[in-house]
Amino acid sequence: PSLANLKKFHFRSGKIKEIEGIISRTGYTQESSGFEFYIHPDDAVKLWNLLLRQGEEFGIKAAGLATRDHLYSEANLPSHEETKSITDGLSLYKTHPSYFHLSKPYFVGQKIVNKLLEFPAVKEEFHYKEEKDKVRQTPLYEEHLKLGARFISFAGWKMPVCYTSISEEHQAVREAVGLFDVTHMGVIKIAGEHAARLLVDIS
């Protein structure tokens, strides 16, 4: 059966021009169409360029995180931005004492902690040194550079936030096809009015 006939939120294994993977049907609204391709990282560049090349006649455009987040908001879908739960300082100290430097001259929440903990009689001079985590790159990083993408750090990855403009990319998803890099999770995504037609054309 044609992959374009796949029901929404259903999955199946398949091939796109000899690239094996799992394909799922998605979409931001009831009217819109989208597909996610779960593939091996080694096949990411091949599939990305295939979709860009074959999608030219359908008006395909690479779209960044800013466009995706805007579409999520319109469809009342949850954001994938990192969130931090709120924990009171004392509970956090009991579970992770190494997070606290009691020798600091002052810190937020010190008054309540003062009543329950013993502090050093003489406080040492404290210097904060930020630890820098290495930001990883997706398999498509070099392809994004070729397209002139602007990047941000997202969940430890260097991700394209925008290629041209949010309005232009948003319009492509609404009226043609948008192409999204989610390869830090093993996924390449297309979405838009002509997404199904593009898939039929390729397969």
From TrEMBL:
Any one GO cellular component localisation term in the record: cytosol
Q: Which SUPFAM superfamilies match?
A: Folate-binding domain
Locate the GCVT N-terminal domain: which residues? Answer: 4-80, 140-200
Identify this protein by name.
GCVT N-terminal domain-containing protein
Organism of origin: marine sediment metagenome
- Lineage start: unclassified sequences, metagenomes, ecological metagenomes
